[in-house]
TrEMBL record:
GO terms for cellular component: cytosolic large ribosomal subunit. Pfam families: Ribosomal_L13e. Residues 183-209 are annotated as: Disordered. This is Probable ribosomal protein L13B. InterPro entries: Ribosomal_eL13 (IPR001380). Belongs to the eukaryotic ribosomal protein eL13 family. Residues 198-209 have a biased composition (Basic and acidic residues). GO terms for molecular function: RNA binding; structural constituent of ribosome. The lineage of its organism: Eukaryota, Fungi, Dikarya, Basidiomycota, Ustilaginomycotina. One of its GO terms (biological process) is translation. Keywords: Ribonucleoprotein, Ribosomal protein. Gene3D superfamilies: 1.20.5.110.
Length: 209
């Protein structure tokens, strides 16, 4: 761009002491080890509890990915009711609750209810020291198993693979595209056909009078 008018010429300084402003990350491995040690110390202070919270098995969103199963945010109120666990109690024993998610199929409800029941059977709840349960003894022989509950309850398989087999004659004759179009058209015209049939019946009833 050409210089116009009687303005001051630019005098930019591009030789500043840039070495002082460079941020290095040579302690990456050491910082990683410090974080890991801090997590272990924190876990030891918290005492006996599951390694991580139990997560529900949910389908990925959209038609493209819904054949896959992943870990969800939390269990629904309906799933907790089916498993016989109260909402406040669930949060106190490592079960997150998601009040926004809804069960849109009986399959998802059954899978997550079974996960909750299996988790509830394995977990060991140690009561707090109070005056009422001061002398109450708790069996801690299965504490190791209780800490590994998450490993015992992996996510279920998204689909069951079928064994290879020969294609039948009926399957060869079946026209999938034609069937889909016919079904779609019947579904679209269902309301109109029902109204027309109802109108015919009313006319026939009036004619008899």
């Amino acid at each position: 761009m050409a210089v116009h008018h009687n303005n001051v010429l630019h005098n930019n300084h591009f030789r500043k002491d840039w070495q002082r402003r460079v941020k290095v990350w040579f302690d990456q491995a050491g910082a990683k080890k410090r974080r890991r040690t801090a997590r272990q110390v924190k876990a030891a202070k918290l005492g006996l509890r599951p390694v991580q919270p139990l997560r529900p098995a949910v389908r990925c969103p959209t038609f493209r990915y819904n054949m896959k199963i992943r870990s969800g945010r939390g269990f629904t109120i309906e799933e907790l009711k089916a498993a016989g666990i109260r909402k406040k109690e669930a949060r106190s024993i490592g079960i997150p609750v998601d009040h926004r998610r809804r069960n849109k199929s009986a399959e998802s409800l059954k899978i997550n209810t079974d996960r909750l029941k299996a988790y509830n059977e394995r977990i060991i709840v140690i009561p707090r020291k109070t005056k009422q349960n001061k002398d109450k003894k708790v069996d801690l022989s299965n504490v190791t198993a209780a800490r590994q509950v998450q490993a015992v309850l992996p996510l279920p398989a998204s689909s069951v693979a079928e064994a290879p087999r020969a294609i039948t004659a009926e399957e060869k004759e079946f026209q999938a595209y034609k069937h889909l179009r016919t079904t779609r058209g019947a579904h679209r015209q269902a309301g109109y056909l029902k109204a027309r049939q109802q109108k015919k019946e009313e006319e026939a009833a009036n004619a008899k009078k």
